[in-house]
Design brief:
The chain is mainly alpha-helical. α2 runs antiparallel to α3, α2 runs parallel beside α4 and α3 runs antiparallel to α4. The radius of gyration is 20 Å and the shape is elongated.
């Protein structure tokens, strides 16, 4: 019974370990989420802007920011690298 318990515990630990992300993945996901939130705010501001040219510009900036955030996550950058890439816009 003890051996079965240890085997089950070991299998559970291995399966949990496989699900965990490394620090870069977590940081990249955070940068992507933050970029998405800022982009959503830009889209909302664009919707509330009477000037069509300004609204289009904000929407374009929002799209570019979302793309940068996606690229950070895809490239698995560190948080510092991701923030630098997003802030370079």
């Amino acid at each position: 019974m003890k051996k079965l318990s240890l085997v089950l515990l070991g299998a559970a630990a291995l399966s949990m370990g496989a699900c965990q992300k490394n620090a870069n993945q977590v940081a990249a996901d955070n940068v992507e989420a933050n970029a998405g939130n800022v982009a959503d705010n830009l889209d909302a501001a664009a919707s509330n802007t009477a000037n069509d040219a300004a609204a289009d510009s904000m929407s374009n900036q929002a799209d570019a920011l979302k793309n940068k955030g996606d690229n950070v996550a895809a490239d698995n950058m560190t948080e510092a690298q991701g923030n630098k890439a997003v802030n370079a816009m």
